[in-house]
Amino acid sequence: MPSQLPPPPLAEKLDELAVSRRISDNLAIVHRLFANCGDLKVLPWQFGTGLENGACSIFLDTLVNHRRHNDFKDALQNLTTTRIGPAESVHLEQIVDFFENHGTSEPAAELIDTVDQVVSKMLDGCIVVLIDGWNRALGFQALDIVKRQVSEPITEPNVQGPHASTIEDLDSNIGVIRNLLKTSRLKFHFFDTGENSRRRVAYGYLDHAVKPATLDEFRARLEGIDTEEILDVSYLESWINNKRLSPFPQVRYTERPDTAVAALLEGKIVALINGSPSVLISPANFMEFFVASEDYYYGIVYSTLIRFLRLSAFIIALILPSTYIALTTFHSELIPTVLLLAILNTREGIPFPAMVEALLMEFFFELLREAGIRLPRPIGSAVSIVGALVIGQAAIQSQIASPVMVIVVALTGIASFALPQYNMAIALRILRFPLMFLAASFGGLGIMVGFLLIYLHLNCLRSLGEPYLSPIAPLNARRLRDALFVPSRRHARQSSQKRSADGQRP
């Protein structure tokens, strides 16, 4: 049994340990490394005159298509017959000479020199062939993993435009992007991370569109990441962020290939990882979180109005609860008399001040939102809707919260859902509570101080060296106009060409 083999000495590093000429030595190391792995398969076979030459195929049964192994043996037999000589007269020297001087039998195969490469190829879903008497090995790609079919984007649904999304396969995602952006200027770089996971990471950019300083900063941020266990593309965010404790997102995510292509045309850098369906886009600025790719698939007037609606939703989700607290607690004279009487009438019998009332309702709303996300999809939406109705009605009838407060909290939650980027909505959920405390303590002055602190933080924030508030600060009138008003397709193309020209300048 493999587990009964004596453990071979592994004093040397695997990447420095060459493949041995003896199959038994190589198999002993493989058996030790993959001890207690029930999916390790070793299939011995012979070739040559009288079948005196030994060989074996080693692979992980859970990663490999079994038919590929049989196809490989048939192809090798046909190869030796047609290219080397009759199968019964093939010798080891002829096999070695062919593979070392003429190449492998198929494009997906390559020569292997070290034991570390043998292990890596097996973990990548390859069939590794060891031949007795030869100090090299052959690796044939035979990965057979079930992949998720391309479907509509889950986090970015749309009515108009492409409905394809990225999936968990890195090569497929890059292939889709290259199919949409057919130019040799599109560059992709690959590297592996993690000692155990060995995840393949790729980042791409459009040459002469991305700023060299931005690209250098991105590469500098990723230094040393090859030793980290990266399981999802969102893990890269902590390495790229300029200020990790900032509530505002400094990168964007998308599952839409057209959004990734548009970002590349604007001089952005995209990052992907095998096993993650999302594409990371950096650098990101504040105004980009209110832009959706669907804006460019409708008329200019409608898309511009929708963009202003998103900006209004951002303001509502940020300050509506704190504004209500400040008005009812400190500035009741600013409320029209009829409306003030209506609010006082609904608050009659409420035992809590407006601040405590708002905190309770916000807590219940956040709890329902998390429950709706974590529950299975068929019942998650039903639980969220029914729970909101039941808790809201019960809170009003038991005089824990007033109807106006329920409306304020509901409008705040709906406004946060109107933002295209979910991570910006998370920032609003965090900042809403400090503003509520400032409003309860100092009224309108506290809200102004909170806004001033947020603006100063945004003004100091950088994303890969780029100002986060650009084009607001520093002010760029042309880009600010494009950010607020959806430009025509012709104007958008001219702006993209202008940005590409700016990227060429050192």
Automatic annotation (TrEMBL):
Pfam families: GerA. It comes from Cohnella hashimotonis. It comes from the Bacteria. This is Spore germination protein. The chain crosses the membrane at residues 308-330, 379-396, 402-423, 435-458. Belongs to the GerABKA family. Keywords: Membrane, Transmembrane, Transmembrane helix.
